[in-house]
Amino acid sequence: MLPTPSTSHVPYSRVYEPAEDSFLLLDTFSQDSETSFLSTRFPAGSSPTPLLLEVGPGSGVVLAFLTAHAATLLGRSDVLTLGVDVNWFACEAASETVRRTVGEVEAEAEGVAGQVDVGNGSGEKGVKPRKSQRRSGHLLATAQGDLASPLRPGAVDVLVFNPPYVPTDELPTLPKELADPTTATTTTTTTTTTTTTTTSNDSEKKKPVPKTTYAQESTLLALAYAGGRDGMEVTDRLLASLPEILSERGVAYVLLCAQNRPEEVKARVRAWESERGRWMAETVGSSGKKAGWERLQVVRIWREGV
Amino acid sequence: MKVLTLNFLTCAVKSCKTSVDSFPLHPKDAELVSDDVELNPQLLVNLLPRIDWNALRTTATELGFPTLPEQPPTPEELQADEKMLQDLHKLLMETQISEGKLVCGACGHEYAVREGIANFLLPSHLV
Asked: Which of B25, B89, B93, B121 should one mutate to test binding to chain A, selecting the residue with the greatest count of A CBs within 10 A?
């Protein structure tokens, strides 16, 4: 089993902490059925480099897992990844999670390759270890944005979305001052409830430390879970953009909870019109069985016959 | 954000999506930093078919990189051309935009890039 990326550096007061839904995605991508689906869909060596987008990566635990273990999970390491999150702190945290995880995976691969060389009977001490095969893909960027809105139409080959799926009366909106917290530092310093993150060795950097109030932090976390009516308001917008955003070979993985009425969602997707091929939607992972109900499930959406 | 990202991004304004001028976004006052990434020729060869070459030429020129040839190399040409491999690797995989703006050629909206994170959230009048 592949290790879960460490997210101990992530500020959980502002960024959604990995939970059952995140781990269900990791488990789903680790299954033989998914690794074989993806490596068949994007055959290594004979098809263009796939671009993977995670919408709302939060802590980056899923994005880091997919990026760092690209060779195992997608059957190739020439995979490019991107994360788009409405929360600036999530963009920062996710990019750091990916950086750390890729570093660990590559260091371990190097170590193993080095040991193999030392023990292969060549008898030469101090031989430069053979360069190991890269295991990880490459993170292009994390960017702040609304769902997949900055992406070029047809660009995304693999899309992953762990949406705000909890049914709520209202849909939170991002406070204007949090649309760009790097410039909001001065405007929030007068608030009494500000929390400050200080890193002692950071003092020389010109980088301002963004401050957030308790209310702002609550909104940031609410944006990660509150899904409005049926918990589907945000997911419905993302689903509507899939035909435009996905490449022809593109595939999306969307997490749903029971209250989202996943069977109806899948039926709606299958009824989408397509100029080429037809739309498919299947449950490929689930967790939290309760009286025959799957509390959470991952639905794979793709076009067949293109 | 890696320079390569610009080949996959466009203006977030809906009405700009159909305009040819919204792609690629134009870097402005860009500060560049360079990462050390190991050269992977196979990655570059597999990347070629999905790169919009004209857009990449524009981006390279705007960032002050040497002008790319008018036509993209074929996979065979690229594999045999060490200099081209090195140049593309440096531009696409190693160079990052850390600060600056990305400007839409259609609507003129400027997206800020800070600490390597571009901000594509739109002010309410553009949504």
From this structure: B121
Interface contacts A/B by beta carbons within 8 Å: 104
Residue A265 has pLDDT above 90, yes or no: yes
B residues 38-67 near A, CB within 8 Å? Answer: 38, 40, 42-43, 46-50
Q: How many C-beta neighbours within 10 Å does residue B119 have?
A: 22
What pLDDT digit, counting tens, does each position of A9-59 carry? 999 999 999 999 999 999 999 999 999 999 999 999 878 999 999 999 999
CA distance A97 to A49: 23
Q: What is the ipTM of this complex?
A: 0.96
| Per-residue pLDDT, A111 | 81
Interchain contact, B9 vs A207, CB within 8 Å? no
For chain A positions 211-240, those within 8 Å of chain B (CB to CB) are: none
* Alpha-carbon dihedral B41, B47, B51, B56, rounded to 10 degrees: -30
One-character DSSP codes across B50-116: GS-HHHHHHHHHHTTPPPPPSSPPPHHHHHH-HHHHHHHHIIIIIEEEEEEEEE-TTT--EEEEETT
Q: Which of A92, A134, A152, A237 to mutate to test the interface with B (most CBs of B within 10 A)?
A: A152
pTM above 0.95, yes or no: no
- Mean pLDDT on A124-146: 78
- From B9, B47, B116, residue closest to A150, measured CB to CB: B9
The larger pLDDT score, comparing residue A290 to residue A67, is at: A67
Min Cα separation B67/chain A (Å): 23
Mutate to test the interface with B, among A87, A133, A140, A244 (most CBs of B within 10 A): A140
Assigned CATH for B3-126: 2.20.25.10
Residues 6+ positions from B1 with CB-CB distance below 8 Å:
A140, A141, A142, A143, B96, B97, B113, B116, B117, B118
Domain coordinates of chain B in residue numbers?
A: 3-126
Say which residue the tokens 């879960």 belong to: A4
Closest CA to B77 of B53, B51, B50, B41: B41
Residue A224 burial by Cβ neighbours in a 10 Å radius (0-12, 13-18, 19+): buried
pLDDT digits (tens, 9 = 90+) for B53-99: 999 999 999 999 999 999 999 999 999 999 999 999 999 999 999 99
